[in-house]
């Protein structure tokens, strides 16, 4: 049996197994993150209500709409009488908001340190331990909910704590495994969370209806534990540590990576990182990307609902279109970028800057056009979908640039940039609320979209002017120190040899003089 397994893994490249595990890892993270949105609908049901949503283009009756609760749409949860019977809860809108938001209270902080943890102890262990902890915490959800909503908040808080480690750790794994000519494909695997969101929203509903809300906790937890077994068996920190990789594939990866990446190191060179202008340019670009994503996820549906009078979140496949567009375009852009790089049609820096046109500038332009679409729901949904779709090119820009600058510290760089970028999730709803505080007309929404588009476009322009795809000297800072020590030692040794030789010649000359 072991022989058969070895033959199978010789046929299937280890890099493909790794790509699938990275993709499904992101899927698992988002499955455990977003399932609470739908679970709350079953846990805190409200009776059917005839609510008319006023908008400039008309109104839509949401009595027959089964609204999805989004993290970003917490403010839209309405107060209503609750039915408390047989396992459902009488939680207020504020309590539900705290349950949903607790995931993000510590997520940016652990995202900041997750990369450093993976660089120090290995991404395989970091992802495994974080995923097991997330599965256990999810399985504890029903018991915590029956105890008190505060207990459920605590489990969600620690779920976010564990989840924050995973994405930076995956970037470390990509840096150690992905040859430069295949990095775009590997980074596209990090879009697995997009499909995880869509599938979770699609399958949780039937699960809730047939088996009750508790199963929507237990099933994802069980699937995660099964996935952890596959992760442990199929993934290794580096090609040299993988037990089933072929010698040919191991040599190909190590030769392609060269001496740019190593698995053991001390603390990152924070002073060099924070004083690096290329890193600043990357962080600005990443912030613009996250701003645009949070903007589309929050402002887009709210605009279509409150201005156009159409509830996008209740439209089934329609609400999934922007996410699916981003997923598939990310794979396409990643493959195109790898092809360009392998054929040496453009330099790495040129690729990063050119594709900012697709990942940032075009999505920003589409945001501006969105507010001028008038009362056309189909055109508005098309604009949102195209904006998210073009943003899939981020696999060639901000999602890959930290790998260029310092593959040894890719997780650290991503964690820092993601920590800063996460603030966009808090800022975008505030800006939207400020400009639309007096109504929901096109005139009041126009500044909201101008701000969102400006952040998208300005961050891209900044990176185009100041960014680079070249590896930075501080990626090798430890090697440089070791090299300096070696050189000093060699100089000292040569100096000692020179002194000995000179002493020997002096004694020889003296001996000859005496003999004469």
How would you describe the overall organization of this protein?
This is Major facilitator superfamily (MFS) profile domain-containing protein. It is a multi-pass membrane protein. InterPro entries: MFS, MFS_dom, MFS_Na/Anion_cotransporter, MFS_trans_sf. With 516 residues, the protein is mainly alpha-helical. 71% of the residues lie in helices and 2% in strands. The protein has 23 helices and 2 strands. It has helices at 2-11, 14-43, 93-101, 107-121, 123-139, 141-147, 149-163, 166-177, 183-188, 192-211, 215-234, 247-257, 270-274, 277-306, 317-342, 348-354, 356-370, 377-390, 398-405, 410-421, 424-435, 442-466, 477-515; strands at 52-55, 58-61. Strands 1-2 form a two-stranded antiparallel ribbon. Helix 4 packs antiparallel against helix 20 (410-421). The longest helix has 39 residues, at 477-515. The chain is globular and about 60 Å long. The N and C termini lie far apart (86 Å).
Give a concise summary.
Keywords: Membrane, Transmembrane, Transmembrane helix. With 516 residues, this protein is an all-alpha fold. It contains 23 helices and two strands.
